[in-house]
Amino acid sequence: MNNLKKKLLVMLLALSVALVFPGCGDGAAREQPQAKGGEGGTETQELPPDALLQEESSQQAAYPLTVMDSNGDEVILESEPQKIVSVAPNLTELVYELGAGDLLVGRSDYCDYPKEVSEVESVGTITTPDIEKLVSLEPDLVLISTHFDEENKKKLTELNTPVLMLYEEDSIDGVYEMIETLGTALNRGTQAQACISRMQETVAEAEEQVKGLEKPTVYYVVGYGEYGDYTAGGDTFAGKMIEAAGGDNIAKEVTGWSITLEEIIEKDPSIIVIGESMKGDFMNSPNYSDLTAVKEGKVFGIDNNLLDRQGYRNAEGIRTLAEIFHPEAFE
Protein backbone atom coordinates (compact mmCIF):
# COMPACT_ATOMS: atom_id res chain seq x y z
CA MET A 1 0.00 0.00 0.00
CA ASN A 2 1.52 3.38 -0.98
CA ASN A 3 1.80 6.35 1.38
CA LEU A 4 -1.21 8.18 -0.06
CA LYS A 5 -3.51 5.19 0.51
CA LYS A 6 -2.19 4.78 4.04
CA LYS A 7 -2.91 8.43 4.85
CA LEU A 8 -6.43 8.17 3.41
CA LEU A 9 -7.11 5.01 5.44
CA VAL A 10 -5.96 6.63 8.69
CA MET A 11 -8.14 9.68 8.01
CA LEU A 12 -11.23 7.54 7.36
CA LEU A 13 -10.65 5.46 10.48
CA ALA A 14 -10.22 8.56 12.63
CA LEU A 15 -13.45 10.05 11.23
CA SER A 16 -15.39 6.88 11.97
CA VAL A 17 -14.15 6.85 15.58
CA ALA A 18 -15.19 10.47 16.08
CA LEU A 19 -18.72 9.62 14.92
CA VAL A 20 -19.12 6.42 16.91
CA PHE A 21 -17.64 7.67 20.19
CA PRO A 22 -18.90 11.21 20.80
CA GLY A 23 -17.68 11.18 24.42
CA CYS A 24 -18.84 13.51 27.19
CA GLY A 25 -18.76 16.96 25.67
CA ASP A 26 -17.24 18.55 22.60
CA GLY A 27 -14.00 16.99 21.47
CA ALA A 28 -13.91 14.48 24.32
CA ALA A 29 -13.56 11.49 22.03
CA ARG A 30 -10.39 12.87 20.52
CA GLU A 31 -8.64 13.47 23.81
CA GLN A 32 -7.59 11.15 26.59
CA PRO A 33 -6.69 12.25 30.15
CA GLN A 34 -3.18 12.13 31.52
CA ALA A 35 -2.29 12.55 35.17
CA LYS A 36 -0.96 15.93 36.17
CA GLY A 37 0.78 17.00 39.33
CA GLY A 38 -1.49 18.11 42.16
CA GLU A 39 -4.72 16.76 43.57
CA GLY A 40 -7.42 15.95 41.05
CA GLY A 41 -5.63 17.75 38.21
CA THR A 42 -5.74 16.47 34.67
CA GLU A 43 -4.49 17.59 31.35
CA THR A 44 -5.31 16.29 27.90
CA GLN A 45 -3.02 15.32 25.10
CA GLU A 46 -4.16 14.81 21.55
CA LEU A 47 -3.42 11.32 20.26
CA PRO A 48 -2.53 10.36 16.69
CA PRO A 49 -5.28 8.43 14.84
CA ASP A 50 -3.63 5.01 15.12
CA ALA A 51 -3.09 5.39 18.90
CA LEU A 52 -6.65 6.67 19.26
CA LEU A 53 -8.05 3.60 17.53
CA GLN A 54 -6.03 1.34 19.79
CA GLU A 55 -7.28 3.25 22.85
CA GLU A 56 -10.94 3.06 21.76
CA SER A 57 -10.62 -0.65 21.07
CA SER A 58 -9.23 -1.27 24.56
CA GLN A 59 -12.38 0.30 26.07
CA GLN A 60 -14.74 -2.17 24.42
CA ALA A 61 -16.31 -4.67 26.80
CA ALA A 62 -16.34 -8.40 26.08
CA TYR A 63 -19.44 -10.35 27.06
CA PRO A 64 -20.24 -12.40 29.08
CA LEU A 65 -18.99 -9.73 31.48
CA THR A 66 -18.65 -9.69 35.25
CA VAL A 67 -18.72 -6.37 37.08
CA MET A 68 -18.50 -5.63 40.79
CA ASP A 69 -21.28 -3.61 42.44
CA SER A 70 -20.86 -1.19 45.34
CA ASN A 71 -21.46 -3.99 47.85
CA GLY A 72 -18.63 -6.03 46.38
CA ASP A 73 -21.03 -8.52 44.77
CA GLU A 74 -20.40 -9.86 41.30
CA VAL A 75 -22.99 -9.15 38.61
CA ILE A 76 -22.82 -11.24 35.44
CA LEU A 77 -24.04 -9.77 32.14
CA GLU A 78 -24.43 -12.41 29.46
CA SER A 79 -24.64 -9.82 26.68
CA GLU A 80 -24.51 -6.07 26.16
CA PRO A 81 -27.61 -4.53 27.81
CA GLN A 82 -30.26 -3.41 25.36
CA LYS A 83 -33.16 -2.75 27.75
CA ILE A 84 -32.50 -0.99 31.05
CA VAL A 85 -34.71 -0.12 34.00
CA SER A 86 -33.25 2.39 36.45
CA VAL A 87 -34.92 3.11 39.78
CA ALA A 88 -32.05 5.30 41.00
CA PRO A 89 -32.31 8.94 39.84
CA ASN A 90 -28.55 9.49 39.93
CA LEU A 91 -27.90 6.40 37.83
CA THR A 92 -30.62 7.43 35.40
CA GLU A 93 -28.75 10.68 34.89
CA LEU A 94 -25.54 8.76 34.27
CA VAL A 95 -27.19 6.50 31.71
CA TYR A 96 -28.12 9.55 29.67
CA GLU A 97 -24.72 11.16 30.14
CA LEU A 98 -23.06 8.02 28.79
CA GLY A 99 -25.23 8.18 25.68
CA ALA A 100 -27.42 5.19 26.58
CA GLY A 101 -30.70 6.98 27.32
CA ASP A 102 -32.37 5.27 24.40
CA LEU A 103 -31.92 1.93 26.21
CA LEU A 104 -34.09 2.99 29.16
CA VAL A 105 -37.46 1.25 29.16
CA GLY A 106 -38.35 2.01 32.78
CA ARG A 107 -37.56 4.52 35.53
CA SER A 108 -38.64 5.49 39.05
CA ASP A 109 -41.12 8.22 39.93
CA TYR A 110 -38.18 10.32 41.12
CA CYS A 111 -36.08 10.11 37.97
CA ASP A 112 -36.60 13.65 36.67
CA TYR A 113 -33.35 14.59 34.94
CA PRO A 114 -32.72 15.10 32.10
CA LYS A 115 -36.21 16.25 31.10
CA GLU A 116 -36.61 13.66 28.33
CA VAL A 117 -36.68 10.91 30.96
CA SER A 118 -40.29 11.91 31.67
CA GLU A 119 -41.21 10.10 28.45
CA VAL A 120 -39.95 6.79 29.88
CA GLU A 121 -42.51 4.61 31.67
CA SER A 122 -42.36 4.73 35.47
CA VAL A 123 -42.37 1.57 37.56
CA GLY A 124 -42.90 3.30 40.92
CA THR A 125 -40.70 4.26 43.85
CA ILE A 126 -36.96 3.85 44.32
CA THR A 127 -37.42 1.45 47.25
CA THR A 128 -40.44 -0.69 46.35
CA PRO A 129 -41.35 -0.33 42.69
CA ASP A 130 -44.04 -2.40 41.02
CA ILE A 131 -42.00 -5.55 40.41
CA GLU A 132 -44.59 -7.13 38.12
CA LYS A 133 -44.60 -4.04 35.94
CA LEU A 134 -40.82 -3.86 36.02
CA VAL A 135 -40.46 -7.50 34.95
CA SER A 136 -43.04 -7.04 32.17
CA LEU A 137 -40.66 -4.56 30.54
CA GLU A 138 -38.21 -7.46 30.11
CA PRO A 139 -35.06 -5.57 31.09
CA ASP A 140 -31.67 -7.21 30.75
CA LEU A 141 -30.26 -4.88 33.42
CA VAL A 142 -31.84 -3.15 36.43
CA LEU A 143 -29.98 -0.28 38.09
CA ILE A 144 -30.62 0.35 41.77
CA SER A 145 -29.19 2.34 44.67
CA THR A 146 -28.79 1.49 48.33
CA HIS A 147 -32.44 2.31 49.11
CA PHE A 148 -33.81 -0.54 47.02
CA ASP A 149 -35.72 -3.19 48.98
CA GLU A 150 -33.62 -6.33 49.48
CA GLU A 151 -36.57 -8.68 48.97
CA ASN A 152 -37.33 -7.13 45.60
CA LYS A 153 -33.69 -7.48 44.61
CA LYS A 154 -33.86 -11.14 45.54
CA LYS A 155 -36.99 -11.62 43.41
CA LEU A 156 -35.29 -10.12 40.38
CA THR A 157 -32.19 -12.22 40.91
CA GLU A 158 -34.32 -15.36 41.08
CA LEU A 159 -35.79 -14.36 37.71
CA ASN A 160 -32.25 -14.18 36.30
CA THR A 161 -32.51 -10.43 35.81
CA PRO A 162 -29.11 -8.80 36.46
CA VAL A 163 -29.33 -6.13 39.17
CA LEU A 164 -26.48 -3.64 39.52
CA MET A 165 -26.36 -1.62 42.73
CA LEU A 166 -24.12 1.45 42.58
CA TYR A 167 -23.81 3.91 45.43
CA GLU A 168 -21.16 6.19 46.90
CA GLU A 169 -21.35 7.81 50.31
CA ASP A 170 -17.78 8.91 50.92
CA SER A 171 -16.04 10.90 48.20
CA ILE A 172 -15.99 12.24 44.66
CA ASP A 173 -13.39 9.59 43.82
CA GLY A 174 -16.04 6.99 44.54
CA VAL A 175 -18.30 8.67 41.99
CA TYR A 176 -15.58 8.27 39.38
CA GLU A 177 -15.51 4.55 40.17
CA MET A 178 -19.31 4.37 39.82
CA ILE A 179 -19.15 5.99 36.40
CA GLU A 180 -16.36 3.68 35.32
CA THR A 181 -18.28 0.58 36.45
CA LEU A 182 -21.48 1.66 34.74
CA GLY A 183 -19.56 2.56 31.59
CA THR A 184 -18.02 -0.91 31.54
CA ALA A 185 -21.38 -2.62 32.08
CA LEU A 186 -23.01 -0.67 29.24
CA ASN A 187 -20.03 -1.03 26.89
CA ARG A 188 -19.43 2.69 27.04
CA GLY A 189 -16.03 2.77 28.66
CA THR A 190 -14.74 5.52 26.41
CA GLN A 191 -17.64 7.82 27.21
CA ALA A 192 -17.21 7.07 30.92
CA GLN A 193 -13.52 7.96 30.90
CA ALA A 194 -14.21 11.18 29.01
CA CYS A 195 -16.91 12.09 31.52
CA ILE A 196 -14.60 11.42 34.46
CA SER A 197 -11.89 13.55 32.85
CA ARG A 198 -14.31 16.46 32.44
CA MET A 199 -15.42 16.18 36.06
CA GLN A 200 -11.85 16.08 37.33
CA GLU A 201 -11.01 19.15 35.29
CA THR A 202 -13.99 21.10 36.65
CA VAL A 203 -13.23 20.11 40.25
CA ALA A 204 -9.53 20.89 39.91
CA GLU A 205 -10.27 24.32 38.46
CA ALA A 206 -12.69 25.16 41.28
CA GLU A 207 -10.25 23.99 43.95
CA GLU A 208 -7.45 26.04 42.39
CA GLN A 209 -9.64 29.16 42.33
CA VAL A 210 -10.35 28.99 46.07
CA LYS A 211 -6.97 27.69 47.19
CA GLY A 212 -5.55 29.68 50.09
CA LEU A 213 -8.67 31.80 50.58
CA GLU A 214 -10.25 32.23 54.00
CA LYS A 215 -13.04 29.69 54.44
CA PRO A 216 -16.51 31.00 55.37
CA THR A 217 -18.52 28.96 57.85
CA VAL A 218 -21.27 27.09 55.99
CA TYR A 219 -24.49 25.37 56.97
CA TYR A 220 -26.08 23.10 54.38
CA VAL A 221 -29.77 22.62 55.13
CA VAL A 222 -30.99 19.12 54.25
CA GLY A 223 -34.11 19.28 56.40
CA TYR A 224 -35.57 21.49 59.13
CA GLY A 225 -38.67 22.14 61.18
CA GLU A 226 -40.75 20.30 63.73
CA TYR A 227 -39.19 16.93 62.94
CA GLY A 228 -35.65 18.15 63.54
CA ASP A 229 -32.73 19.72 61.72
CA TYR A 230 -30.67 17.78 59.21
CA THR A 231 -27.45 18.64 57.46
CA ALA A 232 -24.41 17.01 55.86
CA GLY A 233 -22.01 15.82 58.54
CA GLY A 234 -18.27 15.79 57.99
CA ASP A 235 -18.28 12.12 57.08
CA THR A 236 -20.92 12.49 54.36
CA PHE A 237 -20.50 12.89 50.64
CA ALA A 238 -22.09 16.37 50.58
CA GLY A 239 -20.06 17.44 53.59
CA LYS A 240 -16.85 16.69 51.75
CA MET A 241 -18.08 18.60 48.71
CA ILE A 242 -18.50 21.68 50.93
CA GLU A 243 -14.90 21.39 52.08
CA ALA A 244 -13.65 20.82 48.51
CA ALA A 245 -15.40 24.03 47.44
CA GLY A 246 -13.55 26.08 50.04
CA GLY A 247 -16.15 26.16 52.79
CA ASP A 248 -15.87 25.45 56.51
CA ASN A 249 -18.73 23.07 57.24
CA ILE A 250 -20.20 23.89 60.66
CA ALA A 251 -21.21 20.22 60.91
CA LYS A 252 -17.76 18.81 60.11
CA GLU A 253 -17.61 17.21 63.56
CA VAL A 254 -21.06 15.68 63.10
CA THR A 255 -21.40 12.03 62.11
CA GLY A 256 -24.28 11.43 59.73
CA TRP A 257 -27.08 13.88 59.04
CA SER A 258 -28.60 15.07 62.31
CA ILE A 259 -27.79 18.37 64.02
CA THR A 260 -29.50 20.26 66.84
CA LEU A 261 -30.94 23.75 66.59
CA GLU A 262 -28.72 24.74 69.52
CA GLU A 263 -25.62 23.69 67.59
CA ILE A 264 -26.71 25.72 64.56
CA ILE A 265 -27.30 28.83 66.67
CA GLU A 266 -23.98 28.36 68.47
CA LYS A 267 -22.01 27.95 65.22
CA ASP A 268 -23.92 30.86 63.61
CA PRO A 269 -22.84 30.21 59.99
CA SER A 270 -21.93 33.09 57.72
CA ILE A 271 -23.40 31.29 54.70
CA ILE A 272 -26.41 28.97 54.43
CA VAL A 273 -27.02 26.74 51.43
CA ILE A 274 -30.45 25.17 50.94
CA GLY A 275 -32.60 23.61 48.25
CA GLU A 276 -34.30 26.39 46.26
CA SER A 277 -37.79 25.08 47.03
CA MET A 278 -37.18 25.30 50.80
CA LYS A 279 -35.48 28.70 50.93
CA GLY A 280 -38.53 30.94 51.44
CA ASP A 281 -40.07 28.98 54.29
CA PHE A 282 -36.71 28.54 55.99
CA MET A 283 -35.97 32.26 55.99
CA ASN A 284 -39.42 33.01 57.39
CA SER A 285 -39.07 30.50 60.23
CA PRO A 286 -38.54 32.18 63.63
CA ASN A 287 -36.10 29.42 64.63
CA TYR A 288 -33.48 30.73 62.23
CA SER A 289 -34.29 34.44 62.00
CA ASP A 290 -31.43 35.50 64.28
CA LEU A 291 -28.73 33.67 62.33
CA THR A 292 -26.14 35.98 60.78
CA ALA A 293 -26.57 34.47 57.33
CA VAL A 294 -30.32 35.09 57.42
CA LYS A 295 -29.93 38.68 58.65
CA GLU A 296 -27.32 39.50 56.01
CA GLY A 297 -29.09 37.83 53.12
CA LYS A 298 -26.49 35.10 52.76
CA VAL A 299 -28.97 32.25 52.31
CA PHE A 300 -28.45 30.71 48.88
CA GLY A 301 -30.98 28.46 47.17
CA ILE A 302 -29.52 25.86 44.81
CA ASP A 303 -30.54 22.73 42.96
CA ASN A 304 -29.75 20.38 45.84
CA ASN A 305 -29.55 17.42 43.45
CA LEU A 306 -26.12 18.75 42.49
CA LEU A 307 -25.00 17.70 45.98
CA ASP A 308 -27.39 14.95 47.01
CA ARG A 309 -27.27 12.76 43.91
CA GLN A 310 -23.97 11.01 43.39
CA GLY A 311 -23.14 11.48 39.72
CA TYR A 312 -21.49 13.55 37.03
CA ARG A 313 -23.30 16.76 38.11
CA ASN A 314 -21.39 16.73 41.42
CA ALA A 315 -18.52 18.52 39.68
CA GLU A 316 -20.95 21.29 38.78
CA GLY A 317 -22.12 21.23 42.40
CA ILE A 318 -18.61 21.85 43.72
CA ARG A 319 -18.15 24.67 41.22
CA THR A 320 -21.51 26.19 42.25
CA LEU A 321 -20.61 26.05 45.94
CA ALA A 322 -17.18 27.56 45.29
CA GLU A 323 -18.80 30.50 43.48
CA ILE A 324 -21.17 31.03 46.42
CA PHE A 325 -18.41 30.83 49.04
CA HIS A 326 -15.86 32.90 47.11
CA PRO A 327 -17.59 35.06 44.47
CA GLU A 328 -14.54 37.32 44.29
CA ALA A 329 -12.46 34.44 42.94
CA PHE A 330 -14.75 34.00 39.92
CA GLU A 331 -15.21 37.61 38.82
Write the layout of secondary structure elements.
Layout: H1 3-20, E1 31-35, E2 42-46, H2 49-58, E3 65-68, E4 74-77, E5 84-86, H3 89-97, E6 104-107, H4 131-136, E7 141-144, H5 150-158, E8 163-165, H6 172-185, H7 189-210, E9 217-221, E10 229-230, H8 237-244, E11 248-249, E12 258-259, H9 261-267, E13 271-275, H10 279-284, H11 292-295, E14 299-302, H12 305-308, H13 314-325
Parallel strand pairs: 5-6, 5-7, 7-8, 9-11, 9-13, 13-14
Antiparallel strand pairs: 1-2, 3-4, 10-12
Helix pairs in contact: 1-2, 6-7, 7-13
Summarize the structure in words.
The chain has 331 residues and is of the alpha/beta class. It is built from 13 helices and 14 strands. The strands form 5 sheets. The protein has a 4-stranded parallel beta sheet, with helices on both faces. The chain has a 4-stranded parallel beta sheet with strand order 11-9-13-14. It has a two-stranded antiparallel sheet with strand order 1-2. Residues 1-47 and 49-54 have low confidence and may be disordered.
How many alpha or pi helices? Answer: 13
Spans of at least 5 consecutive residues whose pLDDT stays below 50 are 1-47, 49-54
Alpha-beta content class? alpha/beta
Largest sheet: 4 strands, parallel
Query: Tell me, what's the shape?
Result: globular
Beta fraction of the residues?
15-25%
Neighbour order of strands in the largest sheet: 6-5-7-8
Rg on CA atoms, Å: 22 Å
- Distance from N terminus to C terminus (CA atoms, Å) equals 56 Å
Helix content bin: 25-40%
Mean pLDDT across the residues is 86
Q: In terms of quaternary structure, what is this?
A: single chain
Number of strands: 14
Order of helices and strands: HEEHEEEHEHEHEHHEEHEEHEHHEHH
